[in-house]
Amino acid sequence: MNGKEVIVGVTGGIAAYKAAELVRLLKREDLMVRVAMTKSATRFVTPLTFEALSGERVIHRMFHREGSAIDHIRWGQESDLIIIAPATANFIGKMAHGIGDDFLSTCVLAATAKILICPSMNVKMFENRAVQENLNLLEKRGFMVMDPTRGDLACGTEGPGRLPEPAMIKERAMMLLSRQDLSGLKIMISAGPTVEPIDPVRYISNRSSGKMGYAISRAAVRRGAQVILVSGPTGLNPSSGLTFLPVKTAEEMKRTVFENRSGCDIIIKAAAVSDYRPREYAGQKIKKGAESLSLHLVKNPDILAELGSERGDSSTILVGFAAETEDLLLNAEKKLRSKDLDMIVANDVSRKDAGFETDTNLVKFIYRDGRVEEVPLMAKDRVADLVLDRARALREARLEG
Ligand code: PMT
Fold first, then answer.
1. pLDDT > 80? residue 327
2. Is residue 107 part of a domain?
3. Helix 16-28 vs helix 47-54: angle between axes, to the nearest 10 degrees?
4. In a shared domain, residues 206 and 164
5. Which of 118, 317, 359, 370 has the fewest C-beta atoms under 10 angstroms from its C-beta?
6. Which pLDDT belongs to residue 289?
């Protein structure tokens, strides 16, 4: 998201403190973030907090001394998105009726950027007809409104009125800032490890954290795809806006993938599936006793190979990952051919900064025609976009030819 600019407009509600976390999360996406506050907002959180988090000057007065006299016009026209969070009933009323009596409201009036409104207030205020009609009016004019969530409100009541969690607002913002080039496509992604139980307290698994697969699912949602995420156990939260299908074992993963594969335009298997599982499951915890213990393992189904062998003339694009510690290209290419894939993403998992658990990855894309494309070490989020770019291009080429 390098180069994109977002304005967070903070108005005077108790949820103003959550806007601080929102700014932090947006900054982590490499966005330029500027904050404008209403006078009442500064009673809840100081401008200094936002200045420290955004690294930019915060404007909270119409006639401020620094900067330019036309900042209220420049800001809304230079930015790609304005997020009003929290948006009070008063500020929503002002936006709906064209009132510009402070920096933020004049900035909204002059804006050419997309505007996302995140209302937050007492439930009775939120349900008030005037507020609802103002929100409807704004939506008709092209503003986007993110519904408040239900729950205990600071005023002691319960119901809709809470500001959505900053992570949810950030995801919505990222979607609005992303190109929607995957809209209309159904994409299934597998992620994380599988776990193969030995007894009620032990299992065989691997080091996959799910970061790579989750990054692909997040990027696909942002870019407008309909996404199914089939995931082994991880400590990660799936993005909102996708179908999340948690599984544990390789056999469960296979069942879930096959039950949901119909109509998928692209299937990307970033999961690290256990190749073997214990032949028997001990119903009770195995007791310590003998000096050694043997486990008899049997082969798990190869999900991707079965998808490859069954696809016939379907136009689904199949993408695998290859986790290798030696002979990366040779081994990855063998998997591409034996599983009949369109592309395989090879990662050398012996490196400290790539493969399992890391936030970065170093990958090579290998295609059916023998082409190999190398890309530099980068964040898994960026690798995710590249994987989706390549898969989309392969699909277009398949449909054309
Ligand atoms: O989750 P992270 O910590 O972010 O780590 C990311 C990753 C290293 C797990 C990921 O980038 C990756 O390489 N995933 C594939 C790991 C793997 O199982 O590779 P493989 O070479 O054993 O398998 C090749 C392909 O066949 C994979 O797409 C795999 O999902 C699939 N497979 C493998 C075995 C099996 N029984 N069924 C399968 O479908």
1. yes
2. yes
3. 10
4. no
5. 370
6. 87
